[in-house]
Backbone:
């Protein structure tokens, strides 16, 4: 019996913001055909059940500010399994092209002659809507700034100072360790009273959220026991939820 010909392919798939049913249909179909799944810390483990029982499911996650699988090791695994197993699914939380290093992995695979595919995912900031916070709202915010709270060198992104000059919504990824710096940056620019919210696990049953003023971000997180991974939203769109809450309370009286 002849050996089956292995055709190396890499699928970089966005797992979405947490809830397994927020995976795209295309992502679901690809998972069903996977020979190997290399999955991240933020990818819901329930999605592994979609892959065939015989598929290798290998954790290559990175705990925030804790233990992690070096990126070099992940690249080596992509190379090894693509050429030995064929169809490899790189399952990453949220959307792999938004602070997810997904494109780096695609470039690496292409340089090796591996056919690559990208399947977008619902990014975590879109979970704001599940907490009644729209990212944009007519007459309130006509744009969105998405910045990372922690750059490669560990410093706060300088883009935050540019973003806060506008009335656009500002979304900060990976910023929970920088809450004090974010608050101070706004305070120093005279914008400490901007509405802000923190949302953790927006699409899951154990979700937590809090809203208030940007100057109070550290206290808000501490009082509600919020930690990473979480999204920070700054802008007047946060008040839309508060207005909705007030209207609902009036309706009940």
Residues:
């Amino acid at each position: 019996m002849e050996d089956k010909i292995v055709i190396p392919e890499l699928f970089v798939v966005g797992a979405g913001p947490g809830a397994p049913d927020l995976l795209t249909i295309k992502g679901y179909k690809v998972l069903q055909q996977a020979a190997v799944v290399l999955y991240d810390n933020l990818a819901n483990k329930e999605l592994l059940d979609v892959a065939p029982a015989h598929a290798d499911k290998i954790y290559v996650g990175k705990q925030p500010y804790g233990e992690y699988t070096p990126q070099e090791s992940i690249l080596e695994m992509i190379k090894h399994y693509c050429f030995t197993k064929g169809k490899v699914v790189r399952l990453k939380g949220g959307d792999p092209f938004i602070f997810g290093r997904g494109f780096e992995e695609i470039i690496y695979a292409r340089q090796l002659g591996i056919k690559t595919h990208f399947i977008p995912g619902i990014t975590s900031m879109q979970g704001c809507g599940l907490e009644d916070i729209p990212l944009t709202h007519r007459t309130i915010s006509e744009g969105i700034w998405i910045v990372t709270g922690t750059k490669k060198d560990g410093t706060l992104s300088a883009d935050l100072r540019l973003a806060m000059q506008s009335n656009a919504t500002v979304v900060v990824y990976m910023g929970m360790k920088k809450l004090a710096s974010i608050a101070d940056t706004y305070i120093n620019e005279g914008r400490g009273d901007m509405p802000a919210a923190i949302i953790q696990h927006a699409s899951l049953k154990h979700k937590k959220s809090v809203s208030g003023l940007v100057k109070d971000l550290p206290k808000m997180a501490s009082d509600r026991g919020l930690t990473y991974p979480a999204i920070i939203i700054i802008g007047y769109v946060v008040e839309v939820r508060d207005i909705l809450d007030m209207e609902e309370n009036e309706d009940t009286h």
The beta strands are 9-14, 36-39, 56-59, 87-92, 115-119, 144-148, 169-173, 195-200, 208-213, 231-234. The longest strand covers residues 9-14. The chain has a mean pLDDT of 90. Residues 71-84 form the longest helix (14 residues).
